[in-house]
Amino acid sequence: MSGPLTVFWQLMQKDLIQFKHEYKDRLINTFMLFLTNVLVFSYFVPTMGTGMDYGAFIMIGAIASFGLFDIIGQVSALIADIEGDRAITFTLSFPMPSWMVFAQMGMRWATQSFLLVLILFPIGKLFLMNKFDLSAVHYGKLLLIFITANLFFGSFALWLGSMLKKMGDITHLFLRFINPLFMFGAYFYPWRDALKLSPIIGYATLINPMVYVMEGMRGAALGQKGYLPFWLCFGVLWVFILACGAHATRRLKRRLDCV
User: What is residue 187's DSSP assignment?
Assistant: First the structure.
């Protein structure tokens, strides 16, 4: 297995070197989106009665959700390659199992998302100052759920790429998948508020993996009170990671004739 693992990490190194060249522009784009979210929800929206702690609430949600929107570009690149040059077939010829090729793709996307968003934590603190209480942060749990969330986004992107049949389907990706997950994923409200609104709605939204991303991140960064238990969020996300990864691998192996 040392041979395939060596190839795996060599591919990761190659992809990270390529990512380095586009990192600056992508970081600026991410920063601008983050800046508008944090400033509006920290200083404008509280005047409507949401409370002064809403800025920190949204800041953590924004950091947690950026990987979800990166999925569109990742899936587009995968489908374009399958329909076009099929460079992935060359990678599949390397001395490693096909499942490791797909796992490396998901890991690459997760790592890129992680590196883009990690810097936003100190930037968010600078914007919010005393509105973000660092004494409430459980740093070990925050790092653990942050890594897990990005691994989920990588696995989920791989699954979506395996489900879409042609490039034209990308036009449906945001409206049919990304936006519903985001809007009902506890970004604007904690899950407990959905439960208060209606137990049916609250429990129905528990099928949405973004709920566990948001609740887990906020519980680790803002204090556990009022959020779903951290280890529940962590465990459920790993179920999604493994399920999406396994199903995506089976579908892609059939699609690329590497069964």
Answer: S
Tokens found for residue 11 = 């591919």
Burial class of residue 135 in the structure, from the number of CB atoms within 10 Å of its CB (0-12 exposed, 13-18 middle, 19+ buried):
exposed
Let me know how long the chain is: 259
- Token representation of residue 70: 């990166």
3-class DSSP assignment, residue 49? coil
* 53: CB partners within 8 A, 6+ apart: 131
User: What is the tens place of the pLDDT at every residue in 191-237?
Assistant: 999 999 999 999 999 999 999 999 999 999 999 999 999 999 999 99
How many other C-beta atoms are found inside a 10 Å radius of the C-beta of residue 67? Answer: 26
Q: Around Cβ 172, how many Cβ atoms within 10 Å?
A: 10
Cα(54)–Cα(57) distance, integer angstroms = 5
